[in-house]
Amino acid sequence: MNDYPPPPPLSDFSMESDRLASVGQRALAQVLDSFIIGIPLFILTMSFGADLTDTDDGSLLWLTLLWLGVSLLYNTAFIATTGATLGKRIMKLQVVNRTDGSPVNWTYAAVRALIPTVAGVVPVIGFALNIAVYVRAAFHPYRQGLHDAAAGTIVVRR
Fold this sequence. Notes:
Elements: E1 19-20, H1 23-47, H2 59-82, H3 86-90, E2 93-97, H4 106-120, H5 126-139, H6 146-151, E3 153-157
Helix pairs in contact: 1-2, 2-4, 4-5
């Protein structure tokens, strides 16, 4: 965060069909993306015979790393190439540059995906930090989570 005022909202540069996405729309898109990523990973994990109840086994660590890697790749690639993950497409949402509504490049898409991932892996408080990344959008005038602010993006309804 810095002391500079945020740029004007998307509606100020004549993109009349675009509106800021609601927090509820964004949350539902996130849930959809979790299922899109989680179900295939769960099936893959079970097909290799992993025991998710055995916390002494290193397989739980590898499963966590696999989940994080796939999630990072999924979010970065979809946002950089199409502006929306599959969950966001279903909800008719798109991630754009907050200053001019242009597409998000690979670097900013990666930053946007990395912030909640890093927050989520902090031992003991990771879940709370991850929630804080997203909850900020409910109180921000442009509905930016911490990951959006870091990447200079907003989520709009198309």
